[in-house]
Amino acid sequence: MKAERPLLAISIRIAATICVAALMALVKLASAEGIALPELLFWRQALTIPAMLAVLAATGQMYRLRTKRLKSHALRATFSMVGMTSVFGASILLTLPQASMLSFTSPFFAVLVTALILRAKVGAWSWFAVLIGFAGVLLIAQPGSERVNPLGALAGLTAALVVVIISYQVKDLARTDNAIACVFYLALFASLYLALLLPFFIQPHTTKEWLLLAAIGTVGMVGQYLMTVSLMYGAIATVLIMDYALLLWTTVLSVMIWNQLLHPATWFGAPLIILAGLIITWRERRLSREAPPISAGELD
């Protein structure tokens, strides 16, 4: 496993959030052109495979795809498909800032996973932060109102939960495999899964639509690689906190492309979610000095 380099991990993660924001915008634009979600998901992954093989073959680095953990990669791809479907769905059904705000609940789900699945002790401060954070979510989502699509809100929260599970899986895979292998086998297995659905959704495309699909595949590949590398160089709690930069990028894109401003409720809910995430990060850093890191083996 690589030695942790927090500053490098933070820088890489911020770059990854720029890619994620761009990907969310591209998905929303492609959906508006009539491209079905399963097809968007397929091309997002499938276009990664030939691009990576071409680069690795040209540079004589095919050896970087060696792995003895195909089962673990297949399992990660399964969770990733749930997560990516949720991310794309939230991007389509919600405004980009709304979708990004719901993704910030990942640290709260990390606390739940730590307590309920990994059976680790969780302090009162962390539970308090979870309550504050979900109060912020309620302010933004406002259940029962027509301002936020409930299916989109559910998709956003599901994506946040899956991000936590995948983060532990990536940390575990990093013990033996490099980032290139992790990204490639995710694309390979995900493409195989999605190919089963493709005959029911594929359709002819215009040049503009193919350009959108190519951009989704390229930006998604780069973003996935950066996200994977960031988890290899930094602690999960430290890395995930950088995802808050996503709100800035999605807000800018939302204003530039759709002329959508943040709803007033978001200005009240967002600080609660961010405050809760900061509390959890502070607690994680304190605890990391007192105890060894938790193994992700139980999630493999």
Approximate helicity band: over 70%
β-strand percent reads under 5%
Summed over residues and divided by their number, the pLDDT gives a mean of: 85
What number of domains? 1
- Report the total helices: 14
Q: What distance lies between the first and last C-alpha atoms, to the nearest angstrom?
A: 16 Å
Radius of gyration: 19 Å
Shape: globular
Short description:
The protein has 300 residues and is mainly alpha-helical.
Describe the protein in words.
This protein has one domain. 75% of the residues lie in helices and 0% in strands. The chain has helices at residues 6-32, 37-46, 48-58, 70-93, 96-103, 106-116, 124-141, 150-173, 179-195, 198-201, 207-233, 236-241, 245-258, 264-288.
Key phrases:
single chain, 300 residues, mainly alpha, 14 helices, globular
Helices and strands in order:
Layout lengths: L5 H27 L4 H10 L1 H11 L11 H24 L2 H8 L2 H11 L7 H18 L8 H24 L5 H17 L2 H4 L5 H27 L2 H6 L3 H14 L5 H25 L12
Helix pairs in contact: 1-4, 1-11, 1-13, 2-9, 2-11, 4-5, 4-8, 4-9, 5-8, 5-13, 6-7, 6-8, 7-14, 9-11
